[in-house]
Amino acid sequence: MKIILVAFLGTLMVLNPVFPQESDITSNLYETYEKYKEKKLDKRRIKHHVLQPLIAKYNADPRFSVDKVGESIEGRDLSLISVGSGKTNVLLWSQMHGNEPTATQAIFDILNFLSSDDFQDEKMEILRNLTIHFLPMLNPDGAERFQRRNLLGVDINRDAVRLQSPESRSLKRVRDSLDADFGFNLHDQSIYYNAERSEKPATISYLAPAFNYEKDISEKRGNAMRIIVFMNNIIQKYAPGQVGRYNDDFEPRAFGDNIQKWGTSTILIESGGFANDVEKQEIRKLNYVSILSAIYTIAKENYRNIAIEEYELIPENDRKLFDLKIANVTYNLLGKDYTLDLGINRLEVDKEGNNDFWYSSRIIDQGDLSTYYGYESFDAKGYLIKQGKAYQKSFEKMADVMLLNPIDLLKEGYTQVRVKNIPFDLLESPLPIHIIGNTYKPGNLQLEVGINPTFLLEKDGKLHYAVINGFLIDLNSGKSDFKNAMIYR
How close are the terminal C-alpha atoms of the chain, in Å? Predict the structure, then answer.
């Protein structure tokens, strides 16, 4: 069914009043997203074999072509999925870093959209003017292990000149064979990036890479900047203030910089963090909406009317976010009270098979962190840090511990429970209290960068909060976004 469209580029018209009035597919793409979302890809830890039935579906569809364009070091196929008949070639590649899968998911959402019966007029405009090529999961060996580098230990994004990796050679060969007009270099970045001088995460960050040390702006690079301005205005509608811009210092080994130099208008897109979006599903949706909208404006060539000057107005990326920031807490050291801020991150530890993870948190910084921010922030002025105790009773097995009320134990000052027989395959405590083995001897709490953040917060002689493995727990209400505590054997 044809979807009725509303005004095109509403926010962009404010910045560029000469921009021609067009139909806006952006709002409708956002509102109808669930219809096209590829449900088989609902977690970040995607494996190559999961993609193969999806790719086979497009191989069987006469509107699409699927070509094997190379293999990884371990022999996994690299597939190029193409659609459209236009003279302008657009190349999108994702997951050259194996642990950066957000855009891979969005690519298959876009493919679902392009194969649907909806938006017929808009898709006709796209597919008549463009030929779109998707190279998802360039680094399948890294994806298998959920690691950044490939099996050779090489960062593919720094192998554009030497081309030692077969994955690198495949990307270079595809780019050259297509002589692509536009390239979308799709990545994930750390969730701890923020938009400069802002507490807001850099949910999406962009870069039109430089092609020389002088950072010259050619027509091709200028077009990439215009597309980024266009996409920024879309993201601002759904994640206001949550866009960053990468530093454009020239990196002669990088694929983005070289592909720009080779004559392709290259747009780097980095998917960062978004509050309460651990699996980056909302960010995936923003990728889908903004990339499809950008493809549409490329097809219509409306980007040519966008002022390049708007590109420099996008705030630069910064890295001043923590999962949890505790400010102004009192810490007694050697009999003297000090005021500290604590920056805490919850670090993911992959389970065997790299399909799931648990958290092992760390204090990342401490001292005056007044220029830093947190996804969660707590002003602990008036609260004193207290070390937790080990519960005096030792339990035989975990089943006994599961009968306890951990909040009651925390209120009494206990942050650890001793268990004689801890299952070998149990990696993390499901309760907001650490599990320790029979012979484990807890040390004295001394706050320093790198330790696991576990302590209690006391005010007026009463315990009000606990921090267990970096998760803040309100002992009065029980409120917390707690996921797991630690096991110390």
Answer: 60
Query: Based on the structure, what is the number of domains in the chain?
Result: 2
Q: Are residues 75 and 117 in the same domain?
A: yes
d(C-alpha 178, C-alpha 91), whole Å: 8
- Kindly state the tokens that stand for 69: 């364009």
Burial class (CB in 10 A: 0-12, 13-18, 19+), 30: middle
Residue 281, SS3? helix
pLDDT at residue number 456: 98
Kindly state whether residues 257 and 404 are assigned to the same domain. Answer: no
Which pLDDT tens digit goes with each residue over 408-448?
Answer: 999 999 999 999 999 999 999 999 999 999 999 999 999 99
Looking at the fold, whether 54 and 161 belong to one and the same domain comes out as: yes
Looking at residue 363, which CATH number applies to its domain? 2.30.40.10
25: confidence class by pLDDT, cuts 50, 70, 90: confident
For tokens 């519960």, the residue is 391
Q: What is each CA distance from 475 to 87, 408, 482, 484, in whole angstroms?
A: 63, 8, 13, 17
DSSP letter string over 118-174? SSHHHHHHHHHHEEEEEE--S-HHHHHHT-SS-TTS--GGG-TTT--SHHHHHHHHH
Per-residue pLDDT tens digits for 167-191 = 999 999 999 999 999 999 999 999 9
Distance CA 84, CA 400 (A): 62
| Structure tokens, 204 | 């999406």
With CA atoms as reference, report the closest residue to 360 among 421, 429, 420, 438. 429
Rounded CA separation 161/91 (Å): 20
Domain that holds residue 465: 321-488
Is residue 461 in some structural domain?
Answer: yes
Among residues 359, 484, 487, 358, which one has the least CA distance to residue 421? 487
Confidence category of residue 471, pLDDT binned at 50, 70, 90: very high
Q: CA quadruple 10, 186, 314, 281: dihedral positive or negative?
A: positive
| CA nearest neighbour of 211 among 268, 155, 269, 263 | 263
Task: Return the residue matching tokens 């690299």.
Answer: 78
Q: Is the dihedral of CA 402, 408, 411, 417 positive or negative?
A: negative
CA within 13 Å, CB half, 173:
16
Q: Are residues 291 and 340 in the same domain?
A: no
The reply to whether the predicted model has a pTM over 0.85 is: yes
Residues 175 and 274 in one domain: yes
Residue 108 amino acid letter:
F
Q: CB neighbours (10 Å) of residue 302? A: 18
Does 223 lie in the same domain as 92? yes
If asked whether residues 357 and 442 sit together in one domain, one would say: yes
Work out the average pLDDT over 448-469.
98
Rounded Cα gap, residues 147 and 97, in angstroms: 7
**Which pair of tokens denotes residue 344?**
């805490």
